[in-house]
């Protein structure tokens, strides 16, 4: 039963002030599109005759900071207006408790004067009497205007918290032919902005907190009335889903507590339980459609290949951020290098049988080759000759030391037509082709002739070809499938021939030709591009002494390779009580650095798991993010004592399915069944009796590495992150990202707007 107490105290409850709501107008589009919207706002221009009046809310609810942002928005809009007495006139009125004309439409005749006056405007404060400002305009018209003889544009910049009714007054103003834009600032009341704006409201309600977006939206609407236009004809106004969001504070029941209320009896209060509340901030979202102008950007054509990121630079320029292996080219095309001392003479078929199209194709191949392969410090020198009935030495070897000059000289080589006398041309090259190369015989580099043709010779080629090869010249052939047999006869070996099936495939053969140069200095396959990982068993079963012999062995193997980011990349993983990446594929860029790092690899001891080690390579080593290069053959050479291989069959197959060849080198008197199953194909298993015998098997292992050429696929391993899908595309690739991710490799999370659910902190009741 409730008890009664004397009324002997006065209870005072203090409630904290409810925080204002936080507005956001958010266009749901990719970062690239948002950037295009911002860029397009600077490409739009309004030169049609019209009167533009800014009506600034200068009340206390706005505050000085938001008033300055309103001025910044107005100045940005003015940058797009052709302000002059006969074209665009601009005026400004500020209102708080009363309207105050800042300057009339006929006060200034240049954009510079208008913007300077806007900057000088002072915040006045007062109540938000939007209605009084609208009555002022209804009664007097737009100050200094042309009385409706030109379009009249009213831009109201306000927080939408008027002290009185505005809808009827705004409607009367619109009926007089005034186009009204309502631009929110600070914490606007969106409902009032919609009541102020012309129809359709979605094209006339904006947010000054996002200046470039609001400017684009305003100018896009005016462009639909032919008052504004874009600098580029292919710019388009498009609809984008967007939303107006407010962060509002709502009251939520938190519980009940004892309290005292008045009772019917005099001088008594009733003791009972009263509810108390907490305040919670929640996002409320209002879906809308925003109309914005976008223009094609320099990155729309996706000029950056092989996973490069295109970065716009202004409206028509860009640069590519390229992966390490592709940094030598502007567009991240595959770049190569020639580290050897070499003189190369390209011999181009300029006969009628090859035709002008084939000749131009060969010339483009040579130009792209020197751009991709040669550098300022390259030791290679290039010459170019063309032939049909006669041979013409267009670019003597060594004439151009400057690469741009060499490239420009190639443009001057002309098509001649005539019969295809390849044999005569070869004989001339053997006698005279390298006479301009002034290096002495003691210091003579390797000399190479590269024949490019699509036609069978009309004279005898076998004798002249033997004459060329007898002069200690390396003879290589590049041609279509139609001339493959003759090219093999000319060069003396199928391995010296580069064949393409379709004309458009010729440029893709540059890496193959590069791989056939610089091959004579050492054994192995030093010029072959490959990502190679050695996996060493560092478990207690092997022991530190045998592990040291394995280290020495892989160092000896590495001596056979040309280690650099364009050719061979080498990594090392060891496993024992744990799996450890001694160094990744892109950690060391020279052979000397790799050899040093191999010597420092740790012996781990403990019990090893080959399966775990192979999965480690799959997930954390042989990936594009860790330096693996798309489109390059990949191999793993595993040297193990055989223990701990029981769980490795599935991981090894997983690597092979992803385009990685796996060689198992089993050391010990007897091979275990687990190692046989792990090796898979019989040619992927080498049995070595003891660790000291490893050097005797080096040639066999090097041969396997050089032949480890699974079909190259730029999408294996996939360069796409976060479950993105890699899609092959004309010698390159692109990543299709799943929902919520974007970027060249799906590396960026897309930040979406919050739903109208509770977010932020809770506040205790006062």
Automatic annotation (TrEMBL):
One of its GO terms (biological process) is calcium-independent cell-matrix adhesion. GO terms for cellular component: basement membrane; extracellular space. It is found in: Secreted. Disulfide bonds join 737-746. SMART domains: EGF (SM00181), EGF_CA (SM00179), VWA (SM00327). Residues 1-23 form the signal peptide. Keywords: Disulfide bond, EGF-like domain, Repeat, Secreted, Signal. Residues 51-222, 343-517, 531-705 form the VWFA domain. Residues 296-333, 711-747 form the EGF-like domain. GO terms for molecular function: calcium ion binding; identical protein binding. It comes from the Eukaryota. PROSITE patterns: EGF_1 (PS00022), EGF_2 (PS01186), EGF_3 (PS50026), VWFA (PS50234). Forms monomers and multimers. This is von Willebrand factor A domain-containing protein 2. It comes from Octodon degus (Degu). The lineage of its organism: Eukaryota, Metazoa, Chordata, Craniata, Vertebrata.
């Amino acid at each position: 039963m409730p008890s009664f107490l004397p009324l002997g105290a006065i209870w005072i409850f203090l409630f904290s002030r409810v925080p204002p709501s936080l507005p956001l107008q958010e266009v749901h589009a990719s970062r690239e599109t948002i950037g295009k919207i911002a860029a397009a706002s600077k490409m739009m221009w309004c030169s049609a005759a019209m009167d533009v009046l800014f009506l600034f809310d200068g009340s206390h609810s706005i505050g000085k900071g938001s008033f300055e942002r309103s001025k910044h928005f107005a100045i940005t809009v003015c940058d797009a207006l052709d302000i002059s007495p006969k074209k665009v006139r601009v005026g400004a009125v500020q209102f708080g408790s009363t309207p105050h004309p800042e300057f009339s439409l006929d006060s200034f005749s240049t954009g510079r004067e208008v913007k300077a006056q806007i900057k000088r405007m002072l915040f006045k404060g007062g109540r938000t009497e939007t209605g009084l400002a609208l009555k002022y305009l209804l009664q007097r018209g737009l100050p200094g205007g042309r009385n409706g003889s030109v379009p009249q544009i009213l831009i109201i910049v306000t927080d939408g918290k008027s002290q009185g009714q505005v809808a009827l007054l705004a409607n009367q103003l619109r009926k007089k032919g005034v186009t009204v834009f309502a631009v929110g600032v600070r914490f606007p009341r969106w409902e009032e902005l919609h009541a102020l704006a012309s129809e359709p409201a979605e094209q006339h309600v904006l947010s000054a907190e996002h200046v470039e977006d609001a400017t684009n939206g305003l100018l896009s609407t005016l462009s639909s009335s032919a008052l504004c236009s874009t600098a580029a004809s292919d710019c388009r106004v498009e609809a984008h889903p967007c939303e107006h969001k407010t962060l509002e504070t709502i009251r939520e029941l938190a519980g009940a507590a004892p309290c005292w209320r008045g009772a019917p009896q005099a001088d008594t209060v009733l003791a009972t339980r009263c509810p108390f509340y907490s305040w919670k901030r929640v996002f409320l979202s209002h879906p809308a459609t925003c109309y914005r102008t976008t223009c094609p950007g320099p990155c729309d054509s996706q000029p950056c290949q092989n996973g490069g990121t295109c970065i716009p630079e202004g409206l028509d320029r860009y640069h590519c951020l390229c992966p390490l292996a592709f940094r030598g080219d502007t567009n991240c095309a595959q770049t190569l290098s020639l580290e050897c001392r070499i003189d190369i003479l390209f011999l181009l078929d300029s006969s009628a049988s090859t035709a002008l199209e084939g000749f131009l194709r060969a010339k483009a191949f040579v130009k792209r080759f020197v751009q991709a392969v040669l550098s300022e410090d390259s030791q290679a020198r290039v010459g170019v000759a063309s032939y049909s009935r006669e041979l013409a030495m267009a670019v003597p070897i060594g004439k151009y030391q400057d690469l741009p000059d060499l490239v420009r000289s190639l443009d001057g080589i002309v098509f001649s037509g005539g019969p295809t006398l390849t044999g005569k041309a070869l004989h001339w090259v053997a006698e005279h082709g390298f006479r301009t190369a002034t290096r002495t015989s003691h210091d003579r580099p390797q000399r190479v002739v590269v024949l490019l043709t699509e036609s069978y010779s009309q004279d005898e080629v076998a004798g002249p070809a033997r004459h060329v090869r007898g002069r200690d010249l390396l003879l290589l052939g590049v041609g279509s499938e139609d001339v493959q047999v003759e090219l093999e006869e000319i060069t003396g070996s199928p391995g010296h021939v580069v064949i393409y099936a379709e004309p458009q495939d010729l440029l893709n053969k540059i890496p193959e030709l590069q791989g056939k140069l610089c091959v004579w200095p050492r054994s192995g396959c030093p010029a072959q591009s490959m990502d190679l990982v050695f996996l060493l068993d560092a478990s207690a079963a092997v022991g530190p002494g045998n592990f040291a012999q394995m280290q020495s062995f892989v160092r000896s193997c590495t001596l056979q390779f040309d280690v650099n980011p364009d050719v061979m990349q080498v990594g090392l993983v060891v496993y024992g009580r744990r799996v450890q990446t001694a160094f990744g594929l892109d950690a060391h860029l020279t052979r000397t650095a790799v050899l040093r790092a191999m010597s420092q690899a740790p012996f781990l001891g403990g019990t090893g798991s080959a399966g775990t080690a192979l999965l480690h390579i799959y997930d954390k080593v042989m990936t594009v993010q860790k330096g693996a290069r798309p489109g390059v053959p990949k191999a793993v050479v595993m040297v193990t004592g055989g223990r701990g291989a029981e769980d490795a069959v599935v991981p090894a197959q997983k690597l092979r399915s992803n385009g990685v060849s796996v060689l198992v080198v089993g050391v010990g008197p007897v091979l275990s069944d687990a190692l046989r199953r792990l090796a898979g194909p019989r040619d992927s298993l080498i049995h070595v009796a003891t660790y000291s015998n490893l050097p005797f098997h080096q040639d066999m292992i090097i041969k396997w590495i050089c032949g480890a050429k699974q079909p190259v696929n730029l999408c294996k391993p996939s360069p796409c992150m976060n479950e993105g899908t890699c899609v092959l595309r004309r010698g390159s690739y692109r990543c299709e990202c799943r929902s919520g991710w974007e970027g060249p490799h799906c590396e960026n999370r897309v930040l979406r707007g919050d739903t109208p659910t509770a977010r932020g902190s809770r506040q205790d009741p006062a």
